[in-house]
Every structure is written in structure tokens, then in C-alpha cells.
Amino acid sequence: MWRWSRRASERKSGRFFAAKGFTREDLKRAVDVIASDPARWIKTMATEEYGLAPAQRSPPRAAVRTFMAFCAPLLTYLFTGSLTACVLGTGATFFAVGAVKSR
User: Fold this and answer.
1) Judging by beta carbons within 10 Å of its beta carbon (0-12, 13-18, 19+), is residue 13 exposed, middle or buried?
2) What's the rounded Cα separation, in Å, for the pair 34 and 49?
3) How many domains does the chain have?
């Protein structure tokens, strides 16, 4: 099981803020504030270390998108009756979704 360690979090977050140019006093204060709360530290590390942007997700929108992703290959197969067309249509759909999301 994973356990949060304040000392380890201070070392790791200290490296990120030192690289950003924080002075010694500001660095200590920033690390103390962030490391005092495990949830805040996790959000900071996700943003700083992995480059993940905090995103608000909508469950209904996710459900609609999942259903649409299910419908694309199904409709292709139903209208053409060809497995090859289904595979090509699915590949084209995945390519289009990836192209849109990469912007």
C-alpha cells in the first residue's frame, strides 16, 4: 500500500520549485505549504512532474462520447455488412478523434 511521506514530498517538490528559481526562503515556505496537505501535494506533483492539467470532467458527456465511440463501428458494419469496411471506418474514426484531441 502506498503511504504519503512528508519528508519525501518536501524533497521532491523542492526540486521543482528550485528549478523555477525560487529563493531559499520562498522555496522553504512554498514547500511547507504544499507538503502540509497530501491532496495539495498530489495535485501539484501531477501538474509539475507529469504535466497533467487539472480538468473538470462531465460524466454525462463522457457517457455520450462512449456511446458514440460504440456506434461508429457498429453503424459501419450494419450499413456495409463488411468487416473490412468496419475496421477501416473504426480506424478512420479513431484517427479523427485523435487529431481533434491533439489540438
Assistant:
1) buried
2) 14
3) 2
